[in-house]
Predict the structure.
Amino acid sequence: MDTLVHRVWDDHPPAKPREALYVHIHHIRKTIWALAGPNAPAVISRTHTYTLQADPDTVDLRHYLNLLDQSQGLAEGGSERDALKAYQAASRLWGGEPLAGLPGAWATEIRRFVVEKNLAAALKQADIALRLGRFEEAVAGLQPLVEQHSTKEPVARQLALALHGCGRTEEAARLMQRTLHQLRRSGTDPSDDLARIHQGILIGTPVDALLPAPPTSLARRSSSGPTDSLPPEGIWVGRNSELDRMTAASAQASGSVRPQAITGMAGSGKTALAARAARRMHERFPDGRLAINLRGHSLHQPPMAPVEALRELLRRLGTPVQELPQDLESLVTLWRAEARNRRFVALLDDAAGVEQVGPLLPGESASLIIVTSRYQLAALPRVQHIALDVLAPADAVALLRHTLGEERTANQVETATLARLCGYLPLALDITASRLLARPSWTVTDLVKRYNQAPRRLPEIRDSYRAMTKVLAVSYQALTPVQQRAFRCLGLHFGTEFGPGAAAALSGLPVDETEYVLEELLICHLIAEPAPHRYQLHDLLREYAAGLAEHDSATDRHHSLDRLLDHYLRTADQADRRAYPHRLRIDLPPAAASLVWQEDDAQRWFTTEGPNLLAALEYARAHGSRGQLAMMAHALAGFLSSEGYLTTAITVLREAVAYWQTIESAGTTGRALIDFATVCASAGTYDTAIESARTALEIAENTADVALEAEALHQLSIAFWHTAEPEALKLQQRALRLRLAKSDRLQQGRSFNMMGTICLSFGQQKEALKYFLDGLARFRDVGDRRGQFIALNNMAELYKETGNLDSAISAYRRSIKLLQALGSKGQYAVLQINLADTLRASGKPREALELYRAALPVLRSTGDRRSEAIARNGIGKVLQDTGRSEEALAHHAAALAIARTIHSTLEEIQALRTLGEAEAATGRLAQAYAHLETGLAQSRRIGVRSEEDETLAALARIWHGNTLS
């Protein structure tokens, strides 16, 4: 009562407040009765208290706020369409100012809080609608708010974007102009983001390129120290005024740092200047220096897509590849958080244009972004631009003197002449000096004489690309015929970095001879060695080398690229057999020479060569034969799946299946179908996985292919287990019988392990333990660490279900130790959530919550939707355990939405139960009973007794607690 008195009258109650309060309560009771009749909720009076006994969701304000929380959870879980529906449901409850006419500080504070929540929800709803292309819907939601919040940038910004998306661009531009005017009149400086969007609307930039990134929870990355991937620093002279401008602009910035763009002709020293500035400012940006080539002028590859660029930048900042999101929006969000919360310098080299760079600029940021490009980037907002010309003549001479030494440049006139003939262009000067260093017997005079004798060669350096070709030709002509051929062939490589094996494949030389040639090319500065035995060509040198290769016959070029594809295919096949020994193989056609595996670690090889393997796969799709693509897809199926490239894997494996079907090769078609079914199950598309595995099974039975039959049964069993079909165990028993007859202990171990998993899900713990132990013994016999960690994880699950939590935690930790050696972050995240569930059950909620939250972004990035649902449910259960059931609701609702999307019945049943328990804990009894009864019916339908018992127990607890109250 004291609380009610204070809320109604603040610090000025009437003489007899309790009597006055009683009058109010009496009127409330009458009003509720008049509205609801006999079903009206009761207002119960007890000693010094009044209680309204009502389902919380019948109180429109609580129901509204709960819908907003659920919407946020669904949005964070990637279910944007479901989130939008929840926001729309909340919007329908909104009737204007809440508690209108009620005086007092408490009501005022509630109004302020709810109005702010409503505004934030409207903006979030509009944000999702914009991303889904529902521009009219966004306009309808925002237009009523714009006058009320005329000086709030987000409202005007979102509405302008929506109007622009509807084609009402002039109206959007007027709105932005009016908003800018009102902000300035109120004494507020418009943000850079508002100015960027205004400019984008004026020049007709598409809405997708102007959308802000959505908020998301981000896990911080740890690092062993500041990263530094800048190009090696060479001799530096000149460019002092440009350096001073760059460092001065950075030093004057307080908080947010303006990006910088360096533009100029090819070879003008843009990259060198950017790297020099980054090193000069290392104290201001202590968290690292990184550089990536955006491939604006790559010959064999298109310009790097923003998604690819962001993944590479984040990887170099310490984010493991398996934890990186797949979509642009999430990558931009993660990149902006890293740039905002850390202080590093990022060099984005050789940009293709504004559209490519736009998503890579982090907005308000504590980090410095430096972009280099041959194009003007004037349309980029809030960027400091520096346009480079050639070096001053004195600086060009100084560069030669510092590079070659005083003795070789003693003839000052000749040195100045050489600088002039090079057009004072840094790249031409550097290559010229490198040739001299590679020829100790030559003098500057010798080279000047040579240049002067070359018809029209050096004067053209200052004018166009062809002139640059002639400068590069001087170094090229100094090579031996064997070295020239190797250099030309290197220009055909479709990746950005390569090893001696790839170079040998391109050139057709033996590996030992190739390594000698590469060393000679290093001396001539025609290639770089960023890491031991890893080589790169600068983009201009790559273009030049490829241009030279165009003079070779088309047959020679075709043979070089065929050898390169074959090199990656056969090496990947060897690595795959070591990293994923359980896979059913398609044998490669015979090779001219057998491949000797020389790497220490197959998994590390996949990590190192990953970008080249993806480029080879893309090249095979674009330029190779369908057979080459099909074989490459098979060899890389394990790598693509374990590293989280599920979208790519599904695309190429579907094409592989189609190819093998056209040539009517039953055995290879069946194995390709198994590859496809496996990756579809990993991605949660169980219907497609079942269909593919069934087709493979039919092929196997028709051709008496026992190995294929066993694997098809195995994959069917996995997909049916995911969808809680009782047939899963019978299928796996059939697979085991076939495998026992062949005495293949690795495959037997897989079947035993899967049978244990199925039995465990149906509550048959004793049988499950026996199967797990049988599987573990076989994995140990053949030394398969991957199988061992899976079996240990499953045994831990069993121990957890039987209440032996200490044994479960011990088994999980042993499994994690095995997995760390394998380096699979996706599977590591799955183990994290399994261990988290056990820690929660053993009374360690804080540690459990940390593990769940650490695993969640990894699972999102790899596309493991089933495990994402489990993690969401786990977070909700921890929150319930710690008395935060209201917060838990959104997580359980998101888990349920994901489970229903992927048709994962077991996860759906568990989400229904935990959601019902959270609803009951917050007073939402009607919803709780509905969800629990739905889960109970599903448990009975699929015959999972353990889930049925748990749901019945939850219903009993709720019923018992409710009757007591």
